[in-house]
Input
Amino acid sequence: MSSTANGKNGTWRNWGGNVSARPAREVTPASVDELAAAVRRAAEDGLKVKAVGSGHSFTSIAATDGVLIRPQLLTGIRDIDREAMTVTVESGTPLKRLNVALAREGLSLTNMGDIMEQTVSGATSTGTHGTGRDSGSIAAQIKGLELVTADGSVLTCSEKENPEVFAAARIGLGALGIVTAITFAVEPVFLLTAREEPMPFDRVLADFEELWAENEHFEFYWFPHTGNTNTKRNNRSAGPEKPVPQLQSWFEDEFLSNGVFQVANWVGRAVPATIPAIAQISSKALSARTYTDIPYKVFTSPRRVRFVEMEYAVPRAAVVETLRELKTMVDRSGLKVSFPVEVRTAPADDITLSTASGRDTAYIAVHMFQGTPYQRYFTAAERIFTAYEGRPHWGKVHTRDAEYFSRVYSRFAEFTALRDRLDPDRRFQNDYLRRVLGA
Output
């Protein structure tokens, strides 16, 4: 699933296949010192610098025609502090490897997103999140950061050290420096019981506040062209462990959710008129199930069907209204949408440019199968989201710019002032950052 570049002047492509770039050169540093030297050398050559993770962003946030830094040698756990209950990890470590390594040590993150292919720095820098009533994004669990800034120096920050950098750099968009290590809060590994069950769309909306309040982690998928959803509730459990049996897991998570779904999307892409009928079948394919396992096995699932995605964070109080408008729009538009709409929540946090900064949040994600035209659907959805002062996910498709962000983020100017201080020459600039942060 990783992004690749071929040859010296190869083309880099993201996972979704909708972004490509031709960097002047690629560097794979084996240490923080090597990375700092690469940043200094880029400055001497007058080149911009970008670090790229696994290419899971659908925006061009990591694209550069300058120096592309690949962090795959900066991996592994640097330190475990059992007294403080923190783990410091190198920035290029994939979440998958972090989760497995933590479990081996009897530890876990409190909350995580639904895929774990990304690097820890890529995931946190773009604000990757799961769903939670009381626990927030992956970045909200950060206790300390180490980053190489534009002049090649190494800066560390936490609540006590360089707190103004810490407030912003946890979701730094790659604009403040290159993250080289992250210290996460962890806790002793625990069990989650997941309850997945189909539920009518109207009932989920009517009971949304209750479903949110009664569950530590509530989310649901709505299948456009149907009145059906699939809900998922994850709550802590005393056990015993009761994982999904292997054959059932393969059948539901691989065969139905990836294999059959892939074929259904191929058919839908070839003959869009079949999509509503396919949606009716897809939305009923997965039956209710309950299982208990360690967190990463419950929170995350494989995603092999490639898609393009837009996701907006709206105030949690506005989510039901927003979803009603979205459904009405899809029903009236003549659009054919083969991918479910995903709905999750997060509590307010204190990170400058977090999509949940200062407000209780609900996330609504719209997807289109890779290779199908998505502009009309996304444009119509975005019009609805922005009417509610929605904040787009930094790593997913959107058309917003700095002028818009300065209105929906009360601390936007705080971030840009810090960027002026840490990167006055815009060493880490690219077209995307120019659009979202201003020149």
